[in-house]
Amino acid sequence: MTTASTPAPDPREAPRAFLEHLYRVAVDRALPLSTLGAHLPPPPKKGRTLVLGAGKAGGSMVHALEALWPANAPLSGLVVTRYDHIPPRPEGVPQRIEIVEAAHPVPDEAGQQAAERILALTKGLTADDLVLCLISGGGSSLLVLPAEGLTLADKQRINKQLLESGANIGEMNCVRKHLSRIKGGRLAAACAPARVVTLTISDVPGDDPAVIASGPTVPDATTCADALAILDRYGIEVPAPVRARLESGELETPKPDDAVFKGHETHMIATPQQSLEAAARAAREAGVEAHILSDEIEGESREVGKVHAALARAVAHRGEPFARPCVILSGGETTVTIRPRQPGQAKGRGGRAGEFCMGLAGALMGQPQVWALAADTDGIDGVEDNAGAFVTPDTLVRAGAAGKKLSDHLDRNDAYGYFDAIGDLFVTGPTNTNVNDFRALLIL
């Protein structure tokens, strides 16, 4: 298996391994141990340092902080990450911060208990204290603390409906912030009068810290009215008393001009664009020109796949707008709208990356000399055990020979079943970071 530290495989002889190498390079660029140190503040002179946080990179961020923080400076706290996302502890680094696990993308009781404990740890903080908040993608589900009048079951239902609605990440997190007692800047408010420094890994288009993990420590410019409009747009119900509180503005979040944020800092320690640039450099070092379309691509996954296919076919046929050989890279956060199942139809499995690959494969129509990999940089495509999937010039032919019809799998959002049948799932396990979608198309 290729790794980021090994030389790039020859793209002409091993196109799949070459694409995997680019993915590994992109992921390595976002690992906290190599990025966190440049953004750490000095320990406070008088007070204590409390570490709080949530996200799929939480475990690796904690380990990096423990390794980099002065050994003689007090350090304690609690961070919640996804189940099975705590990496092995680096040798010789003592544990000083507790890490707990909870469910993602639909929250569970463990996440609620973690959020309650994190909020409780803010009691008694003083102006002499420093709070380091480690925030990464996935924190919205992992840090669940329903607003008064909502139950965990309500939040689970609303979260699931948002995930299946096709709502983008900004819309989902706007709703989450206004239905929470800890998101949307409320954790920062609870830390007052302590100084808060947020260290974050971006998994959202535009790298807006107010969207990453629903911005628990930063101001929120969205409103209760925005949240209501999103709920109505996607037909998602909330209990009548909660709706009334949204309508009255009672559930409003702290805004950018709130004094509670005075003196606070936010540092972006890893972004999707940085990872795409690292992959582009690796491709060029291997003699293949690389072009980054954008790190902010959104939209329906299968449709984004079709657009990428059109570009790849233009390059393959005419050498325009890019000369061959080349790699086309993109990132962002696409969405999947779950189609209603027909009676007796099996439930589909898959996530954004797999859905993109189905749209791509269908639109490429077996185009020679085009290979692709789409994968989530956290190593998990949706809720499955794969990071994504490969597309090759013979994907449709091999799938047909295996009895798989692409349109059937698209109809029930079953990318996992389609690519599993031909051995083209890309499985990495948790990567311990998260800078969103990674897509690479190789045109030879």
- Give the H and E element order: HEHEEHEHHHHEHHEHEHEHEEHHHEE
Quaternary structure: single chain
Low-confidence stretches: none
Rg over CA atoms, rounded to whole Å, is: 22 Å
Within the largest sheet, what's the order of strands? Answer: 3-2-1-4-5-6
CATH architecture of the largest domain: 3-Layer(aba) Sandwich
CATH domain topology of the largest domain: Rossmann fold
Shape: globular
* Helix amount: 25-40%
Number of helices: 15
The CATH superfamily of the largest domain is known as: Glycerate kinase, MOFRL-like N-terminal domain
The biggest beta sheet is recorded as: 6 strands, parallel
Give a structural overview.
- By secondary structure, the chain is an alpha/beta fold.
- It has a six-stranded parallel beta sheet, sandwiched between helices.
- The model has no long low-confidence stretch (mean pLDDT 95).
- The protein has two domains: 187 residues, MOFRL domain (glycerate kinase, domain 1, 3-Layer(aba) Sandwich), CATH 3.40.1480; 238 residues, Glycerate kinase, MOFRL-like N-terminal domain (Rossmann fold).
- 35% of the residues lie in helices and 15% in strands.
In short:
With 444 residues, the protein is of the alpha/beta class. The protein has helices at 15-29, 58-68, 109-121, 139-142, 152-165, 169-178, 186-191, 224-233, 240-248, 272-285, 301-318, 352-364, 395-401, 406-411, 415-420, and strands at 49-54, 76-82, 98-102, 130-135, 195-201, 265-270, 289-292, 326-332, 370-376, 388-391, 425-426, 437-443.
